[in-house]
Amino acid sequence: MLLVSVISYIDRNTLALLAPTILRETHLSNEQYGWIITAFSITYMLGNPVWGRILDRIGVRAGMAASVSLWTLASVSHVFASGVRSFGMARAALGFGEGATFPGGLRTVVQTLPPELRSRGTALAYSGGSLGALITPVIITPVAAWWGWRGAFWFTGTVGALWLIGWWLLPQTTVSPFKPADSGLRLKWLDRDVWAFIVIYSLGAFPLGFVLYQAAIYLSAVLHQSQVQIGKVLWIPPLGWETGYFFWGWVIDRFAGAGANTLALRKQFWLLTVLSLPFAAVPFFSSLAVTLAMMFFAMFITAGFIIGGVAHATHVYSSRYSGLIAGLGAGSWSALVGALMPGIGRLFDQHLYQTAFTFTALTPALGMLLWNSLIRKRK
């Protein structure tokens, strides 16, 4: 599951990494690029809960095979795109297929690990996303340099096909259902805890989407880095995301009872909120090293919101909803990214970088305020 989330983020981040080159060659604006991201985000939002329920019902093995087959074909379809509509259709198909990534990871964690290990297990399964974002510049930059940006999408499709072959070669027992003791609640859509989870995940993690989709464009337009130079350094911010998953997974298991201790989790979320605010200062620095360090730190903090939100939700609700919980989290984040990215792109077109960074830095604070007002009072 770690490997498949690596592949999913290589597939989705290839466009973000190569955006300066693709936008230049296809004459697309930053705002149009934002709408292409929205196409992905909308179908990813819809696909997450849909795949979550599918995986909860038919199992990880068959469900993941179907989803990866779909998104592999969608990834290759980018080769034939040339404008907003064609890129949007390719991204939409990719987004729906990749909606199974985190539901599959969390479903596997709940099936195979006891509650006291699940935050670290979730960190391991989910960290494939950050690892994929980390290695995409290292792998895709030379591929694009040799064969062009279209060749990069042929490459991502090939990687997906190889995973499918390996998936079917795994022993059946590797992903067989496990029945843990289950005393969690039934998930109800109007439950306050459901909406508390949605807001802390989506708003707390919005800076993650900002860095993933806009970092390459910012480094090119403001710090005047070439596509090759960007490829050499853009692995640094996702390294913060990767280390953040494991650090905050350990902290939440150790100090918040794997999400069971709401008071301790509240303190950690307030700390994360305060630590999110310095991201607004990025445009004040012209140093590439400082900019990358601040993006690294922002992604490190974002991981704490994701792991903490998932830990609490999987503690409160029955394990039979684990796929749906993962889908609601990733889907709500995708919906927010899809809604906001065209506006962020417009701010970039107008060179209003300070406004874009300040807005992004404040979204976790809004998420924390809403979470604190919605969450049920437990120990």
Explained architecture:
79% of the residues lie in helices and 0% in strands. The protein is mainly α and 379 residues long. The protein has one domain (2-170, 188-374): MFS general substrate transporter like domains (Growth Hormone, Chain: A, Up-down Bundle). It is globular. The protein starts with a helix and ends in a 5-residue tail after the last helix. The relative contact order is 0.17.
Characteristics:
globular; mainly alpha; Growth Hormone, Chain: A; 15 helices; single chain; 379 residues; 0% strand
Supply the helix-strand structural class. mainly alpha
Number of domains: 1
CATH superfamily: MFS general substrate transporter like domains
How large, in whole angstroms, is the Cα Rg?
19 Å
CATH architecture heading: Up-down Bundle
Approximately what portion of the residues adopt beta-strand conformation? under 5%
Number of strands: 0
